[in-house]
Amino acid sequence: MAMPERKPKGTRKGYTTGACSAAAARAAVLGLLAGRVPDTIDCVLPNGQDVLFKVEESFVLNGRAHAVIEKDAGDDPDCTNHARLTADVSWIEQPDTIVLRGGEGIGQITRPGLGLAVGGPAINPVPRKNIEHNIRLIAAEALKTRGLQVTLSVPGGEEMAKKTLNYRLGIIGGISILGTTGIVHPYSTAAFRASVVQGVEVAANQGQASVVLTTGGRTEKFVMRELPELDESCFVQMGDFLTPALDAADRCGIQNIIIGGMVGKLTKMAQGETITHAGRAPVDVELVADIARSIGAPAEVCDAIAAQETARYASECMAELGLEHAFHVELAKRVIATLESRYPGRFHISVLVCDFDGNKLAEAGRI
After folding, report:
1. Are 262 and 333 contained in the same domain?
2. Are residue 136 and residue 217 in the same domain, yes or no?
3. Domain for residue 304, yes or no?
4. CA of 76: how far to CAs of 11, 15, 84, 230, 309, in Å?
5. Per-residue pLDDT tens digits of the chain, which is 367 residues long
């Protein structure tokens, strides 16, 4: 496990699967060179930072060296926190060659669009480069006459991967080795943001004309039922990251955007929030009251909505008045108007609205 200085809870940084893999590979190669794997290993991260990692397990036997680094995600734990990133290395005959393979628990690429070879391991380009850089720092002389085979593995990686969206990207059988800086920032959700962008890019690389952005699992199941004609690669769970998803679609040339959501997140979109997380900004209840007013809700109900803190309350009031459908259609139209003003002429946007059980309430735009 990496050994950062202890800091107050909620502020401690951690290390990516890529950084831990690079440290494990460097430790194992040092073991081949010296006959013994060290107890700790220096590793240069992609951002240039030098970090000392603790080697949890190691051996050198019959021309093979083995080293394990346990991932410490700091105060931003995910399903790969405490994963044991493992490197097994051995010499090969080709000089100046480093062959990187994926073993147990490392995902396999089954679809084009990720910038990685189909059939190869899910080790992203920055970690690949970083692993090789760390090896060459210590083995440059030895690599003049022979090469190295490096096999990365993660015990339990296949189970961990079930908690990710890897399967949607065509990555099967394990986790991905990720990380552009080597650092995990507390609660930055940088990995999730990156996966949203990657999901849009995969849809574009597969030639899809539409991308369906949803705020979570329930809304995704709902829109998948509504749009069975679309390929699975079109559906991207964006969570709170609307703007990164739309920016990626714009960059990739996808013009048909379908958004699936429930009242709370859609209200955030309508009021122009770029990140729709509940903790980032309060719901604009005046906006919600204005929507209710515009469809003919009684003044006292609109005043009550403006005095509350949630959009869900408005939705419940409208249901009691028989205005539920009209309210959600108008909300969806406000979302479209806000986003079209931010991205003028760049997208055709449609919105599908469901309730908290995933039942359809309304739609707007040309689905």
Report:
1. yes
2. no
3. yes
4. 9, 10, 17, 34, 29
5. 554 444 444 567 889 999 999 999 999 999 999 999 999 999 999 999 999 999 999 999 999 999 999 999 887 667 898 999 999 999 999 999 999 999 999 999 988 667 788 899 999 989 999 999 999 999 999 999 999 999 999 999 999 999 887 887 788 999 999 887 888 765 456 667 888 999 999 999 999 999 999 988 889 999 999 999 999 999 999 988 999 999 999 999 999 999 999 998 999 999 987 666 555 567 788 999 999 999 999 999 999 999 887 788 899 899 999 999 999 999 999 999 999 999 999 999 999 999 988 899 999 997 6
Same domain, 127 and 246: no
Same domain, 239 and 161: no
Does residue 7 form part of some domain?
A: no
- Look up residue 285 and give its two tokens: 């209840």
Q: Using CA atoms in the order 57, 60, 62, 63, what is the torsion angle rounded to 10 degrees?
A: 120
* Structural domain for 67, as ranges: 14-184
Last residue of a domain, one of 117, 151, 184: 184
Question: Is 260 in contact with 223 (CB distance < 8 Å)?
Answer: yes
Same-domain pairing of 152 and 80: yes
* Two tokens, residue 101: 């393979």
pTM over 0.90: no
Residue 103 · residue 120 · CB < 8 Å: no
- 74 and 148 assigned to the same domain: yes
* Short-list 233, 106, 72, CA closest to 165: 233
Amino acid identity, position 186: P
Per-residue H/E/C for 143-182? HHCCEEEEEEECCCHHHHHCCCCHHHHCEECCECECCCCC
82 part of a folded domain = yes
Residue 9 lies in a domain: no
